[in-house]
Amino acid sequence: MKKLGLLLFPLLAITLMLGGNAFATGVEVDPSVYFVTYYSNAHTVGAPDATVRIINDGDLSTGTGECINFECGGNLWADIFVFDDSQELQECCSCEITADGLLSESVNQNLTANSLTGKVNTRGVIKVISDPSGISAGPDPAPGLRAWATHIQATSVVFAAGKAPAEKSPFYVTETNMADSNLNAAELERLDNLCSFAITLGSGSGVCSCNYEDYEF
User: What is the pTM for the complete model shown?
Assistant: First the structure.
């Protein structure tokens, strides 16, 4: 019986390994197309800039081997929607990312520097839709993008009695995945309409800007 157990154990291990490899070949596909996060302490004196980074995982790539001059098929666009803390859309844009490419967006310079109302936005919500069409005012979701964001956290330090008064400590930077969220038809239509209005009525305002792919700062 012990010998049988010793034989079954490696067989089970091999089975699990094969199963894992089969899973990794793409039999299971992550259908995520919609990601959300927050920004805070933007345009705040003494605070560093936050960054949103988005990659194209290459799921829709049609090329083989190395891509030449960024041409390998599977291009996607990050449709970006930036809201203030009053739940009002302030900026939107659509940024192209080629297969296996990286887009880095500054919250201060790219995503909140051209608000629709002229308001200086310090905190709010950022939403991203993975889109093969490249039209933020009319997104057509398809999976393939993954996104992360840094967050600027402010803390305060209170000194003992008789010492200096309460002072703000240095800002801290944290980074998290943008939350994989649910995108229903109503939300998709709402984002489409809000972005269309911003582009039409803003006369140049209300449109965020896109960095060159793989540009880092």
Answer: 0.78
